[in-house]
Amino acid sequence: MKAVRLESIASMTMRSVEKPVARPGELLVRVLAAGICGSDRHMYKGEYPTAIPVTMGHEFCGIVEVVGEEVTGFTGGELVTVDPNIACGRCHACTRGRVNLCEGLTAIGVTRDGGFAEYVAVPCRQAFTLPADLNPVHGAFSEPLACCLHAIDKAEIRAGESVAILGGGVIGLLMVQLARLAGASQVILITRQLSRRQTALRLGATHAFDPTASDAIAAVRDITHGGADVVIECAGVPETLQTGLQMTRRGGNFVLFGVTPRGVEVPVLPFDLLVNEVDIRPAYLNPFTHSRAAALVASGALELDMLVTKTIGLEEVAEVVGSAPLPGEIKVIIRP
Ligand code: NAP
Ligand code: ZN
Questions:
Q1: pLDDT, tens digit, for every residue of 248-268?
Q2: Contact 43 CB / ligand 1 (< 6 Å)
Q3: What is the pLDDT of residue 111?
Q4: Coarse DSSP helix, strand, coil percentages of the chain, rounded to the nearest 5 percent
Q5: pLDDT at site 280
Q6: Could you give the 3-state DSSP secondary structure of residue 211?
Q7: For a pLDDT cut of 70, what percent of the chain falls above it?
Q8: Which residue in 24, 49, 283, 306 has the most C-beta neighbors within 10 A?
Q9: Per-residue pLDDT at 197 exceeds 90
């Protein structure tokens, strides 16, 4: 079968490999759609640890083709989405329900072969069934959506509150929709590209503006009369961390979601954070949110087609992952 392999840092190729086998407890999934994520570009550049060589791809959806021994709950032929993050279940974090902080976390498409391939073998407990008639491209959004749901859980948006979202990539545009579904009265997206601001307004944002054209902090404070009740940082750059903290209302929640490069420092004003009791809440990965993400995708409550800006075959993956996102690009989907 064909697979896209990260052979070494900055070297990725599509080549023929042995079709994987479903071992006991595993499913063999024929991949129908897979998403390219910003982390794939980080892994390619060596900025995020991987078990090289590896077949990449941690956001995917497909059909169960072979059910391994000792698997219950699957008969074959189901459309499934797969939670790529495999917790050990036994460490201190896992035994306290903090599976995203597992000390022995492994991940499909990162430390074991993933979904940028025609087939992938996955532990059956990582797979969640989707309606058979669901568009598999939508199913491939379950993984990023599951991470967003963890952030939305941490944000604790109450109906009627105001939410500011920094960064209008696929994550920010999913967060816009989730904030609306959570009942936010104002959803403000701050991002530089005009096309993304236009998309956000079509997806339910009440305001969208360019942080380079005006004072983002003043604008949010003005729109919300004092600061957003919830701020979700989805850009992963020092500026948005700094400005986001300052546009959070006194007593509000600031959710740290964007990944800044390791070692990056951001100056903060501890006095202001203290007297305003800004509650900084990091949200990392998808602890127990993948099945809810699958259910939400299946419900049709989210607009996902608008987020797909390009569809490619396996032969184009290395070029896309190896280059910076194009202007206007939101999500690139692979159909193997
Ligand atoms: P992305 O496409 O890179 O989106 C981030 C966007 O932020 C950029 O495209 C850019 O859009 C915008 N941005 C950059 N600088 C900005 C600034 N100064 N002010 C406002 N916006 C700015 O990435 P994504 O896939 O949507 O993911 C967003 C972040 O979430 C990434 O850091 C990713 O690594 C992280 N992430 C975290 C988790 C987790 O579990 N915590 C899971 C998945 C992803 P414009 O060009 O329009 O400004
Ligand atoms: Zn663990």
A1: 999 999 999 999 988 999 999
A2: no
A3: 97
A4: 30, 30, 40
A5: 98
A6: coil
A7: 100
A8: 283
A9: yes
In the CATH scheme, what is the code of domain 148-282?
A: 3.40.50.720
User: Residues 6 or more apart from 171 whose CB is under 8 A from it?
Assistant: 144, 147, 148, 234, 257, 258
Report the C-alpha gap between 181 and 160 in whole angstroms.
11
Pick the CATH number of 2-141+304-334 from 3.40.30.10, 3.40.220.10, 3.30.420.40, 3.90.180.10: 3.90.180.10
Pocket-testing residue among 191, 194, 333, ligand 1, by greatest number of atoms within 8 A of Cβ: 191
DSSP string, 32-53: EEEEE-HHHHHHHTTSS---SS
Residue closest via CA to ligand 1's atom 48 equals 192
Report residue 155 as tokens.
């944000």
Close Cβ partners of 65 (under 8 Å, ≥ 6 residues apart): 28, 29, 30, 76, 119
C-beta 42 within 6 A of ligand 1: no
- Amino acid in the structure at residue 279: D
- Band of residue 215 on the pLDDT scale cut at 50, 70, 90: very high
CA diameter of the chain: 60
- Give the pLDDT mean for 285-300: 98
- Tell me: the pLDDT tens digits for 93-133? 999 999 999 999 999 999 999 999 999 999 999 999 999 99
192 lines ligand 1 (CB under 6 A): yes
Query: 121 alpha carbon to ligand 1 midpoint, in Å?
Result: 30
- Please give the average per-residue pLDDT across 221-237, as a whole number: 98
Residues of the chain with CATH 3.90.180.10: 2-141+304-334
Residue 15 has pLDDT above 90, yes or no: yes
For a ligand 1 pocket test, name from 234, 256, 266 the mutation site with the most ligand atoms within 8 angstroms of its C-beta: 234
**Ligand number with the minimum distance to the CA of 255:** 1
pLDDT score, position 276: 97
